[in-house]
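Entry for the shared binder. Reason: the reviewer on the internal report wants the predicted structure included alongside the sequence.
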Amino acid sequence: MNAKEKQWAVLILLPMMYAITVTVYPFPPDFDISRFLSFYSEFSRPDLTWDKTVGLLKISPDIISGLLELSLAKMGIPVQFFFFSVTWLTIFLFLLVFRLLHVHCRKKEPEMWMFVFVLMSVSVYAVLSGIRNIHA
């Protein structure tokens, strides 16, 4: 495996490890993510009527998040899948932008340890607190 392939492996695996951490982390009750989970559990109920659905969407923090939660709940897809995929994509793009800026400014590829260092700047607490807004 050459250096470029190793770098892409790191760009894929580091966000994956981070996303697994966010997915299995016990969610504190006062974080925004708890509200997200409560909406998801309401949308998952089999006795949910159209009027209740519209009412929940009206009080949802944002309509896109509410529609996405409704879609996931009705398809039976676990909310952890959403957390994992959104977190992985966000962190992957964050590291990719870092790589592109480093190559543009320094005219060379970043070292492997730099990705880990940059990743440490992204707080798990911040992701948990704002995960319902990450997709926006």
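Summary line for the report: The CA atoms of residues 36 and 132 lie 7 Å apart.
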